[in-house]
Each structure stands twice: as C-alpha cells, then as structure tokens.
C-alpha cells in the first residue's frame, strides 16, 4: 500500500474538502480524487461519504483512519531508525528554510556559518509544512521554520526571531488611520491572501472562524508583491507577517497592528530522537552565539 496515498487520505480527513486537501498535498484536485479512489479500490470499501459541500468519513473510513495514522507513524520511525544507522558525513549538512528566509536575516546567518565553520552545506527552501515533513523523514538535517506545528513534540527548537501578523489596507481605506485593528472589524472586507492551503492562509481562516465569520477571499497568490499591488489598487485587504512587508511596499499601503497581537516565531528545528552529527552540533552552537538569534 502506497504510504503517499495514505498521507493524502489523512490530509483529506483533516480538511474535509478536496480543493483544500489537494493544495496541502501540492497536487491537483483530480489527482487527489484518483488517489483516493485507488485506495478505496485496494481496500474494497468506500472511505468517504461525499456531499456537494463537504467530504465526511464513512463508517469504513472511521475504522481505517487510526490504522492509517499508525502506518505513517511506523514509516517515520522506520525511516528515522534507518537514517540513524547510515554512516554520517560529519562535515555535511542539508538545511531547510522557509522561502522568506532573507526577511529574517537567515541568508546572513547561513552564509556566516558556512564561511566560519567550513561545513559543506546545501540549502533547500520549502513552506513550513513541507520542511516539517522533510525533517521527520530525514531529507534534511535542520530547518528554519516559522510557526512550527509540532503537536507530538518531536523537534528540538531554538528560537531565531519573532514576527507579527499585520492588517494591510489601501492608503485610502477608512481604517488607514487606525493605530490598531481587530479581526472582527475586517469581517465585511474582501481578502487577498497567500495560497489556499498554505499555513499563512490557514492561520487567517482560523482567526476569522474564531471571530464567527468566513472571509470573502477574492485572490490568492504566492507572491507578496502581487498581493500588495492588489491591496494598493483597492481590491481588498490582506493579513501578512510584518517582516514580509518591505519599506518599499509600505509606501503604497497602510500596515496596521492587530489587537490582540498575533505573534509567530521562526525556529531552528532538529529531530530530537536523532543523534546529532558534528555539523549539526556546529550549526546549533553557532546559532546560539549569533546576534541574529532573537533579533526582533
């Protein structure tokens, strides 16, 4: 049984929506649908009850879900065990980082580490949710992740910096002169957001749900510049991390702190259960001593 399809199944049970689940899995909605049908064919039972509005687990799906979670857990344990047995190149390191690494001075930090430590480093960039999976599966040795999701506490985390979620409105907006703003006050606005299914997108959805409304989303894009341009032209408002909004952007839009403040940290993460290589130890020691750590 293909564990990737099992992972897709778990994601669909989380979102109960093919579009959102496909976005999270970085595949098309039709591909996700085909994979779920293939899994149902292999098992010989329907796993979901489909309606026009949502997707709910069938009675068979309810029985299968805990076994699916156990299979993925065993796969992760197996990969970690096998990875730990491999002879490590003590001077090689694969580092993951969020795409906005420059905004958090991570390019400076990584460059200084490479030049001073002489460690052979390869850097990959991915969204936070993919970096977490890469760490768990041993595809990277360390990762700089924002807003780490770690319910089972498998990561060691060293905080690098923090950032705040801000409301971004056109300069001509009626709220442009406010010193701060609540999420509730934005309930009648059009929203321009980062991609559907991404962690920043889900953060906004959750915040709106906590305030008893669903945001009217008119545009999503992975490029901050496009989002800012649409906001400045009056299409809608956005919620973005403050350090992702450069000074050049702040000339065309108004950035307003939220009340209460919504803060997120950027952390250097490593898997607790894995014995640290010399290169990992060097990186952790360097980060702890660096003036980038906890830079606001």
From TrEMBL:
Q: Cross-referenced PROSITE patterns, in alphabetical order? A: HTH_LYSR (PS50931)
Q: Which GO terms describe its cellular component?
A: cytosol
Record's InterPro entries? HTH-type_LysR_regulators, LysR_HTH_N, LysR_subst-bd, WH-like_DNA-bd_sf, WH_DNA-bd_sf
**Keyword Transcription regulation in annotation:** yes
List each copy of the HTH lysR-type domain by range: 1-58
Could you list this entry's UniProt keywords, alphabetically sorted.
DNA-binding, Transcription, Transcription regulation
Matches recorded under Gene3D superfamilies: 3.40.190.290, Winged helix-like DNA-binding domain superfamily/Winged helix DNA-binding domain
State one molecular function term (GO). DNA binding
What's the family?
A: Belongs to the LysR transcriptional regulatory family.
Q: What is this protein called?
A: HTH-type transcriptional regulator GltC
């Amino acid at each position: 049984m293909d564990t990737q399809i099992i992972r897709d199944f778990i994601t669909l049970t989380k979102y109960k929506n093919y579009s959102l689940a496909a976005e999270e899995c970085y595949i098309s909605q039709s591909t996700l649908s085909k994979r779920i049908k293939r899994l149902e064919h292999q098992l010989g039972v329907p796993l979901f009850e489909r309606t026009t509005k949502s997707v709910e687990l069938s009675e068979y799906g309810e029985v299968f879900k805990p076994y699916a979670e156990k299979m993925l857990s065993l796969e992760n344990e197996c990969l970690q065990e096998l990875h730990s047995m491999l002879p490590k190149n003590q001077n090689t390191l694969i580092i993951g980082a969020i795409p906005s690494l420059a905004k958090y001075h991570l390019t400076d930090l990584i460059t200084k580490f490479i030049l001073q430590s002489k460690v052979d480093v390869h850097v990959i960039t991915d969204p936070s949710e993919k970096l977490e999976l890469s760490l768990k599966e041993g595809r990277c040795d360390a990762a700089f992740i924002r807003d780490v999701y770690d319910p089972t506490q498998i990561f060691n985390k060293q905080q690098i910096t923090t950032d705040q979620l801000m409301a971004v409105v056109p300069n001509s907006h009626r709220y442009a002169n406010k010193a701060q703003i609540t999420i509730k006050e934005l309930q009648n606005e059009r929203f321009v957001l980062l991609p559907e299914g991404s962690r920043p997108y889900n953060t906004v959805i959750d915040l709106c749900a906590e305030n008893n409304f669903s945001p009217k989303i008119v545009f999503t894009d992975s490029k901050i510049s496009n989002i800012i341009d649409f906001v400045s032209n009056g299409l809608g408002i956005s919620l973005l991390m403050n350090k992702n909004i450069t000074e050049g952007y702040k000339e065309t839009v108004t950035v307003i702190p939220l009340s209460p403040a919504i803060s997120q940290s950027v952390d250097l993460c490593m898997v607790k259960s894995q014995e640290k290589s010399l290169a990992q130890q060097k990186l952790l020691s360097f980060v702890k001593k660096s003036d980038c750590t906890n830079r606001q």
